[in-house]
């Protein structure tokens, strides 16, 4: 059944200020891979009503980053949600059915990730035309070597950092390493859980 406009949840209470706040958090997350950032429930998230099945952090990220020039792909996990209508109303983004055409991908659960080779990785001339994926996961943990599944290194990482993202397919890291063979082309990742987010830019190396 089609969602009525009157039934859609609210976006940012103060669109300009909240978008800037979330955008800064996203930049921090991508600049400091492996360090979990948390959005303020009394700040940017105050008054926002995320769609059904959405993590507040994921919804806020897309609300801040999307506009009418952006193409968005939603995984099948959002088929029963008002996520598409919510983002179309609040951002004007264009929905696409082919993941290869998407500037942004929103994944309801890590198990629903398409094969990474299907995503837009940009080109040698225009590596910035690649996709950014926002993936909702079961848990985010960092700085705990006892449970770490990955060791991260690269730009923005002081030596190395330990982290674990629960809810991804076991071969995610291997697929990502394969996709990095054509750097600077590649996909940038934002993982969310509740109000928290963690960035994994294409330049970050994973062991584990």
Notable features of this structure?
208 residues, alpha/beta, Rossmann fold, seven-stranded mixed beta sheet, 11 strands, 22% strand, globular
Quickly count the domains.
1
SSE run = HEHEHEEEEEEHEEE
Mean pLDDT across the residues is 92
Which ranges are low-confidence, i.e. pLDDT below 50, for 5 or more consecutive residues? none
Text of the CATH class? Alpha Beta
Largest beta sheet: what is the strand line-up?
1-10-9-5-4-2-3
CATH homologous superfamily assignment: Bacterial phosphonate metabolism protein PhnH
The total strand number stands at: 11
Number of helices: 4
Can you give the helix content as a percent range? 10-25%
Report Rg: 16 Å
Quickly give the structural class: alpha/beta
Please summarize the sheet with the most strands. Answer: 7 strands, mixed
Chain-wise SSE layout:
Layout: H1 15-31, E1 37-38, H2 56-65, E2 71-74, H3 83-91, E3 94-95, E4 104-107, E5 132-136, E6 139-142, E7 150-153, E8 161-166, H4 172-179, E9 188-193, E10 196-200, E11 205-207
Parallel strand pairs: 2-3, 2-4, 4-5, 5-9
Antiparallel strand pairs: 1-10, 6-8, 7-8, 7-11, 9-10
């Amino acid at each position: 059944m089609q969602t009525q406009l009157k039934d859609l949840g609210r976006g940012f209470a103060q669109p300009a200020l909240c978008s800037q706040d979330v955008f800064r958090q996203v930049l921090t997350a991508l600049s400091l891979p492996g360090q979990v950032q948390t959005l303020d429930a009394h700040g940017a998230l105050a008054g926002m009503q995320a769609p059904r099945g959405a993590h507040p952090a994921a919804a806020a990220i897309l609300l801040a980053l999307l506009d009418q020039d952006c193409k968005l792909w939603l995984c099948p996990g959002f088929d029963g949600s008002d996520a598409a209508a919510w983002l179309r109303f609040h951002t004007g983004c264009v929905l696409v059915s082919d993941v290869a055409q998407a500037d942004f991908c929103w994944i309801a659960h890590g198990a629903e990730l398409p094969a990474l080779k299907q995503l837009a990785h940009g080109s040698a001339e225009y590596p910035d035309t690649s996709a950014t994926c926002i993936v909702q996961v079961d848990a985010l943990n960092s700085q705990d070597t006892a449970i770490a599944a990955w060791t991260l290194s690269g730009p923005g990482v002081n030596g190395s950092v330990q982290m674990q993202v629960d809810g991804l397919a076991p071969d995610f890291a291997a697929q990502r390493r394969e996709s990095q063979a054509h750097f600077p082309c590649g996909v940038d990742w934002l993982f969310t859980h509740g109000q928290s987010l963690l960035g994994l830019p294409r330049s970050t190396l994973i062991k584990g």
